[in-house]
Structure formats: structure tokens, C-alpha cells
Amino acid sequence: MLNQQEVNAEEENLRCQVNALTAEHRKAYYREFKQKVKDPDTYAALNWFFIVGLHHFYLEKWGRGLLNILLIIIGVILLFTPVFWGGIVMILIVAAEELWSLFRSQVIVKDWNNQLSEEILKKYR
Fold it and tell me: Which residue, of 63, 64, 68, 77, has the fewest CB within 10 Å?
């Protein structure tokens, strides 16, 4: 599980590494980072309005997004079968997990952006 303090410390460490780059490399780093950085509010909005996992696609977590969609579809299908309660339970489990992600959206996206920063930094060190 992501720890807010560790993610913040990693962000500060990466910021120091970026500041240590040459002016030319720092400019190139920021240009690339600005194009790819993700916004926690967009992630949270996608999570809040679309429980089907679109926020996972926003962070390029294709497998997790597809799994959410699949589980919701199966849950909805089960609502129209004798296993009605199984569908409700499946949808509630996905909803609970998504609610947890909603409350942790800031740290989740900050961690994603830290990983992006690290990847871009490798090009300019």
C-alpha cells in the first residue's frame, strides 16, 4: 500500500535530481513531463462518476481497468439470474475498492507522476 510520507519523500528526492540537471536537460525534462503528467482531480472525477474503472485507463493501467469493466458486466448480468445476490455482492466489492481509490486519489496519482518523473530523468542523467 502506498504511504503518503514515502511518496512525498520520493517526490522531493526527484525534484532535487531534476534541479541538478543542466539547464538544457532540465528544460527538456519539464517539457516532456508537462505533456505526460496526470492530474489527481481528473483521476478522482473519473473514479467518482464512472465506477467502471475509467480512472485506471487514465493512469495507463489497462489490465486493472479491463478487470473492473469485466467484473461490473458480470455483476450486472448476474442481477438477471437466480444468482441475483452474487451480482449485488460483486458490484459492491468493486464499488468498495473504487471508493478506497477515490479517497487515496492524491497519493495514487502522485506516485504515478513520481514513476513518470523517474523514467524521464533516466534519459537526461
Answer: 63
